[in-house]
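Attaching the record inline, Q. Sequence:
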Amino acid sequence: MPIALLPRVRGSANAPADVLAELAAAVLTVGVDGEIDFSNSSADALFAPVRPVGLNLRNLLGLSGGSDDGKLADAAATGAVSAPIRIALSDGRTLDGRSRPLPSGGTVVTLLDVTCHVHTTERDATDTLTGLASRGGLNARLVELAARSQRKGSSFAVICLGLDRFKTVNDAFGNPVGDALLTRVAARLRGAARETDIVARLNEDEFAIIQSDAPQPQAAAILAKRLMDLVERSYVVSGHVVNIGAQVGIAIAPDDSEDAGKLMKYANLALHRAKSTPGGGVRFFQASMDVEMQARRLLEADLRAALALEQFELAYQPQFRLEPHALVGFEALLRWTHPTRGAVLPSAFIPLAEEVGLIVPIGAWVLRAACQEAARWPRPVSVAVNISPVQFCDNALVQTVTSALTASGLDPALLELEITEGVLLDDTDAVLRQLNALKALGVRIALDDFGTGYASLSYLQKFPFDKIKIDQSFVRGADHSAQCLAIVRAVTTLSASLGVTTIAEGVETPGQLARIKAEGCNEVQGYLTGSPLSAAGAGKLFGTAPTNPPDKPS
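Structure, as predicted:
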């Protein structure tokens, strides 16, 4: 029928049928008797081959396989103004329906085909690799549960789980093995959760579970323990036996918060605490964590400002040869005096600098400053600079060292780079390549804090270290512990057989010095032989070093 000949909507002179007919949305008008008395062309096409006119709305939707629990038909029958009502048709299409009363009686119903939008939303709500919910899908469900918690006071848990050593596996065996491992982890998480729980992948190696309808926090604690047990069992992936670890952080609604965003934030704070605490494990959110995080962010901002404003300085602790006694070098120690905080302990800011990546530019500054100072000393002695494991992740480390040497004119043989055993853990082959490249420059490499971490004699076999530094815990324990003294003896004997120099750090008493010397240690540093000095103080020490170590701290 031509549009111009379509009838007007019954009972309304303000809604001409020719206007409704041209709308892209499907439009139906329902008379006071409940029958559909008008259907525009979009509605005819939507429901074809069923013809809407003459049917009531409930029957029309039923004949089209529509499912909305009768909500739209009820709204139209009562003349109610409805919010969008989602209708699923049997052919896979999805509609959003609205009803609105007409001024002179009856109801107008509009129907929008939102199939593409819904499919896109569902796709975005799913992690394509694991099939778990995505962060977006998790957040949508979290908002719903938080709203329910606010209305009813119901409790639920947000559980964040982070994988430990996943990056090492991914780098060692490649992305296909890493992806396969993630799918195995996802399957174990899904298997541990109930059907009513939401399991999601948040990013590369972090997952989350929303646990509802369970007594909290007991249920969350039980599930977290189960998750860690499952995740930490061995995997066989593409012929490789893989082992990873996990940490868990938990926030509980409504005890911690009823706000969806805060609950996710708090669960992540608890996870961060678990990751940064020796032994990891499971951590529940505590209010103090939020306070500490705010303090951490302020410290990070101050740390960035310190780098830009050059607030750092170096102190130099002298190192002495024992036989014959002589000054052989200095260790450059990073110091930070904040305008309002005052002196900030290295233990307070260096771990943070490593965590946020600032240790790379800070370490570059230390190298430049130490080399420039050492080049000005009146006679050639070495300068030792600590290198963080994070700096080895930066491909520019060798270039940074080269640049510092070139700019200062310092003889490479006078630069000593101290690394800890932790450097060798993440990717030994890549680290060894960098160490060999540094060695090729002519610099010396020292293994710091030997024996306190994940020591392996294979490290000494793989790389020709120039010096081994005996950790101060063994040095101080040598006064009263036979075990510590035995470790000192073993390290010095091993080093001597390998032709490697040993240096004991943290020597504070004459008794410690005597025992270290008796065990054949080559060099020493500590408060007994010399406190950290300013650059000017270090310069004055040349030619004035005592012929014998002092008996008390200087």
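The domain at 3-117 is CATH 3.30.450.20 (Beta-Lactamase). The longest strand covers residues 326-338.

More tomorrow.
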